Automatic annotation (TrEMBL):
It comes from Candidatus Raymondbacteria bacterium RIFOXYD12_FULL_49_13. InterPro entries: ARM-like, ARM-type_fold, STAS_dom, STAS_dom_sf. One of its GO terms (molecular function) is oxidoreductase activity. This is STAS domain-containing protein. Pfam families: HEAT_2 (PF13646), STAS (PF01740). Residues 314-411 form the STAS domain.
Length: 411
């Protein structure tokens, strides 16, 4: 009879302890942490060293994960354990950021955000905020906002003028995160930014900081000829979540919008207003009714084309991959699995953006397919999307190939 994981970890035999430690994952780490700590406290050769290595690895993965909401108290405990296991980790973060490996550089920024070490942060962020890579600058601005809290946000303000819209949008989010109401006057000066995401973030930040005179700005967005601006207007009304008559009327103007993207955001905004737990800040998701789900599927902006190769069923995706476009993709995957397809590949040639929800979906799908003894991979990934995936450590879980890498022999 095979021993349980608990029995292996509690075993007096080193070989069994090591076997148990090899079975530790993020999913079972916390429930087994007391037994892992006992092995570490025992300080007996290889099991103790392996226990510290595994614990350190899982904690780092948890802390730098963008899709993992951690309570402040839990975060502090994890950081304390990590510093105990790896006293030199702050120096390693500094070295990793200076690496030519883009993934290492992103990982160092995300982990730094959790470590909250102002001394190390000042060294790394000074370089990151002026980096030539716009994704590095965007991540650095977000990290700065997390660490600044209610302190003077002047350094963040500089990046509201960055040439890249992603950096500007992240700078607005960072200002909101500081909860410093002195930021309102700064935000008012940039509320007419030409980028839809920046403008939506400004309205959301203003509302969050107590400035609610945003009806005129939302009206301009709702009536804009740009579908992206109208879609962002629906999104931010949903995030604000207020059921005031003026904002309800503005949202109502988008009821019959012919843009699939706008229609999707309109339905989701209605859902958020009806169920506050589905808003971004709460990180929770309410269950959608059948009518709502059908509407999202019908109006989703993702393009899906299915084809077969020698070894794989391939889904060629186009557009933005996010929480909304994920629904029709999941439905198509369910059909493919039900018909016996075990090897599935995504062609990302036409994908121009991807969010945290869809990235978590990729990880979960990879785990599910491999649990069925199947294979899963992503190929034809454009550089910017590849950078985002690396930045969020998705390529540490999923087999991903860039557009420059040849995969014909694998398909």
């Amino acid at each position: 009879m095979n021993a349980s994981l608990k029995e292996l970890l509690l075993s007096p035999l080193e070989t069994e302890q090591l076997e148990g430690l090899r079975q530790i994952t993020r999913d079972n780490f916390y429930v087994n942490l007391p037994m892992i700590m006992e092995i570490i406290r025992g300080k007996k050769g290889m099991p103790a060293d392996e226990a510290m290595r595994i614990a350190s690895s899982v904690i780092q993965e948890t802390l730098r994960s963008m899709d993992n909401a951690i309570e402040p108290g839990t975060r502090d405990v994890l950081v304390g354990l990590l510093l105990k296991f790896e006293p030199e980790i702050l120096e390693r973060l500094r070295a990793d950021f200076l690496s030519t490996d883009l993934k290492k550089r992103f990982d160092s920024l995300f982990l730094l955000r959790s470590m909250n070490s102002v001394r190390t942060a000042s060294d790394i962020l000074q370089q990151a905020l002026n980096d030539s890579n716009k994704l590095i600058r965007a991540a650095a601005v977000k990290t700065l906002g997390t660490m600044a809290r209610k302190k003077e946000p002047a350094i963040i303000v500089t990046y509201l003028k960055d040439a890249d819209s992603r950096v500007r949008a992240n700078a607005v989010e960072a200002l909101e995160e500081t909860e410093n109401k002195n930021s309102v006057s700064v935000l008012l000066r940039i509320k007419n930014d030409t980028n839809n995401r920046v403008r939506a973030n400004v309205v959301k930040a203003l509302w969050s900081l107590g400035y609610h005179d945003v009806e005129k700005d939302l009206k301009e967005m709702v009536t804009s000829p740009s579908e992206l601006m109208r879609a962002s207007a629906a999104w931010v009304i949903g995030e604000i979540g207020i059921e005031s008559q003026p904002l309800a009327q503005l949202l109502g103007r988008l009821d019959r919008d012919t843009s699939p993207l706008v229609s999707t955001n309109y339905y989701l905004a209605r859902k958020k207003i009806a169920d506050p737990s589905t808003r971004q800040k709460g990180k929770k998701r309410g269950s959608a009714g059948k009518g709502f789900k059908a509407a999202v599927v019908k109006t989703s902006q993702v393009g899906i084309e299915e084809k077969a190769s020698k070894y794989f069923r391939i889904l060629k995706l186009r557009g933005r991959l996010n929480a909304y476009s994920m629904i029709p993709v999941k439905l198509r995957i369910q059909e493919m699995l039900a018909l016996g397809s075990q090897n599935i590949a995504f062609d990302f040639e036409g994908v121009d953006d991807i969010d945290a929800t869809f990235m978590q979906f990729l990880k979960n799908l990879n785990k599910k397919i491999r649990g069925m003894s199947g294979k899963f991979m992503v190929f034809n990934t454009q550089k910017e999307v590849m950078d985002i995936l690396s930045m969020n450590n998705v390529d540490g879980f999923v087999l991903i190939f860039s557009a420059d890498e040849k995969v014909d022999h694998l398909l």
